[in-house]
Amino acid sequence: IVTEWKAFLSAYPNHPLWQQVQERIPSARYRKAEVLRDEGDKDGAIAAWRAFAEEYPTDHRAPRAMLEVGILLRERKDFEGAITVWRGVTGRYAPSAEAPVAWISVAMTLEDDLGRLDEAVKEYEALLKQYGNSGPAREAQARLARLRHAHEGVGELLAADADRA
User: Fold this and answer.
1) Whole-number Cα distances in Å, 116 to 70, 71, 77, 107
2) H or E segment at 21?
3) Phi, psi of 97 (to 5 degrees)
4) Contact 66, 101 (CB under 8 A)
5) In the chain, what is the greatest distance between 2 CA atoms, to the nearest angstrom?
6) Which helix (H) or strand (E) holds 145?
7) Do residues 127 and 103 make contact, with C-beta atoms less than 8 angstroms apart?
8) What Rg do the C-alpha atoms of the chain give, in angstroms?
């Protein structure tokens, strides 16, 4: 359908519906990625969302598209790839609602999937500093509290073992 719309735009540059047709093209491209994801074609969805974000970087859906790419990469166990994509969202689209979601996704992937706890703690702390009371920041706070509590428990066990020795 995008091909037909582009042909229409080229053939009728002065048509009264030109602007409406032009505005539908990005929506169709974004929707294509959603359909591919819903049909289970992760590779196709990743490619479609990346193409969308590249072609329409200032569209309000671009950060969401890249967030979705990261989610699909994580599902495929490409943890480093997902982290790289999400870091792009936290940088390029820092003011967006998706940025703190991407940041918590980075931290959770470091913690849950890669076991890199020190890096995860740093990400949680930076997220809290940057995004305060957002939902992802509250999640970061809860995860930090759990990690610190677990760390204190390990320290107490080590101290008790040292006392017995």
Assistant:
1) 18, 19, 15, 9
2) helix 18-38
3) -65, -25
4) no
5) 87
6) helix 135-164
7) yes
8) 22
